[in-house]
């Protein structure tokens, strides 16, 4: 290693040793010995998991050697590198170098750096709706000015666009700030890289790769939970990047406080920045995503608008659900509709109800339980939330609609029985809720559309 690369390597090594000495000094009982002897040491090189430390006087070597095990522990804490410490005088070190050329562990070239970004995942083709607008805005703010929110923590169920936004950030920065070094990875790859580095004795290279980036984009961080070594390593990398003003963006299937098996200090770091959730797509966003997916298929026949409405209403759990519905529909067109010049709703219903297809519509019997389950799913809630005492607006809306649907669809059920189904509420509460729903259906077309859609699902 020569020139700039050698200088960068030595800077990192010296920084690790400085931080090691700082930690040792904070725990030292003899400040005079520490200030007089330990602060005069230098980290010269790291090879074969042996860290060579030099000191001016050969007579002072024993002080450092006696503390070598504790120093090695602190060195591991700040660098993630397990190494034994070898102490030499400056003269001994010079004599050793005369006998052989120095060996440097880090061999990777900067030019070989791979950011692992998917070039086709950009802000331009990310469909924005109410369910993800805040997340998209936060991601764009970070891309425009890295460090704005640090870390940015995005969480949602699978298939709702977290990976797309991570790559969109990276691709935007790559275009606008070509000098920035960006790395996209997922937590599973991080763990595998770390294990491989331990096995191959290339921890220094691993550290240099992750600590040298300007923007770290890491997907599915929940994967490192309960993996102590990986969490320790990521914690140290996180601190190094954050203290250097580098941008970190993390995604997960849960918010930080719900990450089981994750160290508290990591959870605390995650919560320091901005945490944003992405919800399941509502009808309008699902339909916009659907149109974008169909457009990318470049089909040469039209699909009726009511078909798109049907798919957006019934397959809006996540983006992959929408993609699966499109794939099923287009495949069925190839197999059974070669002579059709367009796809109609009748044909689509036939495609989705075909027993050979994996994407099917599940018909539910209209019972209080199935109605509660359907409404809860429609509004991305749990049945427990629906029947709870919560007064949150979205839960109240869903609860009233569910009460109304039970009254309308379940034969001979009384207001008292409905009240029992919804947490033991008084029959007068049910009557008022049903009355409010009927009134709002007349006033709000979107509200009426939602209830009609639910009735269709339950029919």
From TrEMBL:
Report the protein's function.
Plays an essential role in the initiation and regulation of chromosomal replication. ATP-DnaA binds to the origin of replication (oriC) to initiate formation of the DNA replication initiation complex once per cell cycle. Binds the DnaA box (a 9 base pair repeat at the origin) and separates the double-stranded (ds)DNA. Forms a right-handed helical filament on oriC DNA; dsDNA binds to the exterior of the filament while single-stranded (ss)DNA is stabiized in the filament's interior.
Output the NCBIfam families linked to this UniProt entry.
Answer: DnaA
Q: Which UniProt keywords apply?
A: ATP-binding, Cytoplasm, DNA replication, DNA-binding, Lipid-binding, Nucleotide-binding
As for subcellular location, the record says: Cytoplasm
Q: Where is this region: Domain IV, binds dsDNA?
A: 334-459
The record describes its quaternary structure and partners as:
Oligomerizes as a right-handed, spiral filament on DNA at oriC.
What Pfam family is a match for this entry?
Bac_DnaA
Claim: Cytoplasm is one of the keywords in the record: yes
Task: Please list where the region (Domain I, interacts with DnaA modulators) is annotated.
Answer: 1-112
Gene symbol?
dnaA
What species is given as this protein's source? Catenibacterium faecis
Binding, ATP = 159, 161-163
For this chain, the family text in UniProt reads: Belongs to the DnaA family.
The record places domain AAA+ ATPase at 148-279
Task: Pinpoint the Chromosomal replication initiator DnaA C-terminal domain residues.
Answer: 367-437
- Keyword Nucleotide-binding present in the record's keywords: the answer is yes
Q: Which domain of life is it from?
A: Bacteria
> What name does this protein carry?
Chromosomal replication initiator protein DnaA
- Output the Gene3D superfamilies linked to this UniProt entry: 1.10.1750.10, 1.10.8.60, 3.30.300.180, P-loop containing nucleotide triphosphate hydrolases
* Record remark: domains: Domain I is involved in oligomerization and binding regulators, domain II is flexibile and of varying length in different bacteria, domain III forms the AAA+ region, while domain IV binds dsDNA.
Task: Report the InterPro entries cross-referenced here.
Answer: AAA+_ATPase (IPR003593), Chromosome_initiator_DnaA (IPR001957), Chromosome_initiator_DnaA-like (IPR020591), Chromosome_initiator_DnaA_CS (IPR018312), DnaA_C (IPR013159), DnaA_dom (IPR013317), DnaA_N_sf (IPR038454), P-loop_NTPase (IPR027417)
